Each structure stands twice: as C-alpha cells, then as structure tokens.
Amino acid sequence: MDVKDMMSFPLFKDFEVIAGHKGLNRNVSTVSVMDAPDIYDWLKGGEFLMTTGYIMREEPLQIKDLIIKINKSGAAALGIKLKRFIKELPKDVLDIANELNFPIIAVPINFSFVDVINPVLSEVVNSQARKLMYSQRIHESFTKLAIKGESIDKIIDTLSNIIDKKVVYYDIYFDNIYTSKLDEKTIEELKTEGLSEILNAFSNYPIKIERETYGYLIIYDEIGALGEYDTIAVEHASTILKLEIQRKISNLQIETRYRDEFIQDLILNNVKSLEEIHNRAKLYDWNFDEGNIVAIFDIDNLKVKYLNIRNENHSRTLENTRENMLMFIRKKLKTHFNNAVYTSFSDSIIFIIKPTCKALDKFKELLKIASSEIKREIFNKFEFTVTVGIGSYKSSPQDIHISYIEARKAIKIGRGIYVNNSTIFYEDLGIYKLFDNLSNNDSIKEFYSSYLGKLVEYDKENNTVFLDTLNYLVKNDWNLKTTSEEIFVHYNTMKYRFNKISEILNIDLKESENKLNIAVALKLLQMTK
C-alpha cells in the first residue's frame, strides 16, 4: 500500500496533504507514533509517522531537520496534528518536504492516533496476506509446469495469461526467441531488432544463474516497472525458467559429449564401417551421404597468451574469452551453413559441412565469404585473429578424415606462407602440398641454405632487408618496376638492390633456372619457419 492508497480510505477524508505531493507513491508498511526527537535512529523504512508536535512546540523549525533525517531512514510520510501545539508549519519545513518529495499530512485535531493505526495496520496485514495467497497460487501454477517438464513456450504462455500482457523470452545462450500473444508480423520485426534496442524500449528482467545472464524476460507492451502482483508472477516465472535452462544445458552437455565423440571418431578415422556411421548419425538426425568438406577455424597465438598468464583471474578471463570465441564462430557459421556439425579441440573448432549447392566452386566462394566475415568480427570483438584451413570435398563419409587431415595441413602450410588470419583451401596450395612433406628433410634445409644462406647472413651483419626485397621480387614475377612501387622505393634503388642481391648470392638472377631455384628456396625457408 502506498501513501496515496492510504489517503483514499474513507477514514482519511478530512486529512490533508500539505507538502510533498510528489511522494504519494511511497510504500507504507506500518504506522508509528513519534514520542522522541531521535525517532529516525529506530526506523526500518515504510513508516507513516504521526505526532502532535508537542516535543517541538518551542522550535517548530526543528521539524525541518527531522524530515531530512526520517526521509533518509526511509519513512513513508509524516502526519501532524496542527492547531494544538503548533498552529502552522514554517515555510522552510514545507519547502524541504516539497524538495524531498516527502509527504506531510495534516491530521484533524479530533482524531486519536489509535483511530488511524488500527485500520491502516489492518489494511497492511490484509494486503500482505493477499499477496502471499496470490504468490502461493502462482507458485503452484509454475511448479506444476516444472514437475511436468513443460517447455519454455508453455512457461511464457502461462506468464502471459496470468499478467495478461505480451511476453517475450530472449534466449541469448541458445540463441532463440520465445513469444506469447504476438502476431507473426511483430515476431518477424522482433527478430530483426537488436537486443539492446528491445531492452531499452520495454520492461525487462534478466535471467541470471551464478552471475551469468542467460536471457531476458521482456514485457513487450509495458514500459517502466510492473505492478506488485505482476512482478510476483514474473519472479516465479524466472525461477522456473532457470530450472528449465539448467535442465536444457545439462541435456546439451550430455548430447554434446556423445556428439563430439562421434565427430572425433569420424575425423580421426576411428570408425569401422559405413554402417556404423549411418547408425550413429541417425541418433542426431544427421546425413553424410551427400558429401562433405571439413573446415577448421584455429585461433591464432592463443597458446602464446597462456604462457603470459600472471594470475588465476587472468587465466579465467582467457578461458572465458576462448569459450566465447568458439561459441561465436559456431553461431556465425551456422547462420551460413545450418547443416554443419562441429566439435572443438583446445583453441580450434572443426566443422563438417555439407555443400549447399551442386557447383563446388560456388560453394567454396560462399565458404570463403563466411570465413572472412567471421575473422573480421572475431578481431573486432575479441582482438584475436583466426586462420581457417579447408579440406577438399569427399563424397563418402568414410573419407571425412582425409578432408580433416587436409584442412590441418592447409593451416600449417598457410601459416608458413601467408602468416596468420588467412583462409586456405588445401586444393589451392599446389606445389606447397609437396613442400610440406619435404620441409623437415635435412637435404631440403641444405638446399635453401645453399641458395639463401649468404643473403640471410648479410642482412644480419649489415641490418639490410635484401631477403625481404627478394621475396617481393619473386611475388611480382621478378618485375622490378612493380616491386619498386609495392615497397615504395625508387626504381633506381630497386635496380641497385637487384644487382646487389645477385652479387651477394654470386648468381645470375636473369637465368630462368636460377630464378626457379631461388623461388623454391624462399618457399621452403618460409615453411620451415
């Protein structure tokens, strides 16, 4: 009950609010008679204090200080009998009450305090009893839903019917939206709106479990705080929602464990037959018969970050970042390829993707666009880069492990050639696929050292960049003009560098065979690094 409700009682028809009219929404939980000037030390909040003013009759201005202090202690209002000991309140007292929005009520002189206390306390007790009965009834309704294992849809519908309002549950953990009493057009509009705009526009209540937010209950046709009874219903709905969310997460974790075991068996070639693949795939309503491609999204330099961990909080933060990045990659790729299945290894996530179109070139282009979008957003959101390795198309599910091996090799070779934050298709690596098998061979190291060793040593001793210049020359098909423009040096400087490199290596770089040997040596050196 608030002050305004109390003033609406027939008993209060001769009572007058003389200050603090804007505070009539203050909650009244009890009535008390003021018999000491330090009453504020004993207040618990919600009191309607009444006084004759006797203890301040000599200095009515003391009431100003009293109002400041009882307002701070959470009192609801002050009722005072005027024209008995205090004829009227000083202007300063009325001004401070108006400033604090603290109601001052003039009590008729013929009223005894007990005439006020009994009916007000009775109404407070009755109001609390009604709320308890309502809360119990709502609690029973939602408990039945929990016992029956009803869905989130049913919980939202029940809440919507109880409070007679449009209700939305925006599930940010499972990336879903549940609605009640919304038409199809509004639902489509809701899906296109950003969450922050929705939360700003409507009353909402976060669903939290151990300080982590899993979603928001949104009253879609309400702005501002709900009434007491509606709030009670929302609180009970929130409790049952949390139980349902925990149940779904538990089921997901169990399913994920078995699903991951199956996918890992596929990519590691730990399956015995095609029949086993089909039977296990049926459990998850998967079908690998139309051919598949494996794509690996590997977070760059995450393991290096673990070497620089300073304390437990830093470690926990990095773990959360890793989990959030992998979840983000999963959600984003699934928006492009909904049929993709996935598993995670440490700092990478592996997808088995069914081509969405018959033309493989077109499908590869779509995959490249999706990868670029994910890499860009990961960097903007988490300040990490991602290298993407993509294996070749395999028509048989028994060959998925080959596509996985190719995707891993694409990442390894690609990082050697292009550094990080690249998307590499294994099929596009050409001769580099052969280099991967040779790069750790001693004779290969001897080969590239014999062609480039002198240049590497010269750069170290003289602080020059001839090896980099040579890389750009090979990249630009030995075109001096194009290379000079790309590295921003004068053409004459480029000619000097070309001649100096030839001199250091003691080789004629105009001979085609020498050019080939130098180009191969550079690539082998990059891959070894």
Describe this structure as you would to a colleague:
With 529 residues, the protein is an alpha/beta fold. The protein is built from 19 helices and 14 strands. It has a five-stranded mixed β-sheet. The protein is elongated and about 120 Å long. It starts with a helix and ends with a helix. The mean pLDDT is 87.
Summed up:
By secondary structure, this protein is an alpha/beta fold. The chain is built from 19 helices and 14 strands. Helix 4 packs antiparallel against helix 5 and helix 13 crosses helix 19.
Q: Can you tell me the residue ranges where pLDDT is under 50 for at least 5 consecutive residues? A: none
Radius of gyration based on Cα positions: 37 Å
Strand order in the largest sheet? 1-5-4-3-2
Count, helices: 19
Helical fraction: 40-55%
Counting DSSP E segments of at least 2 residues, the number of strands comes to 14
Straight-line distance between termini? 75 Å
Please report which band the strand proportion falls in: under 5%, 5-15%, 15-25%, 25-35%, 35-45% or over 45%.
5-15%
Mean pLDDT: 87
The main β sheet shows up as: 5 strands, mixed
What quaternary form is this?
single chain
Overall geometry: elongated
- Class by SSE composition: alpha/beta
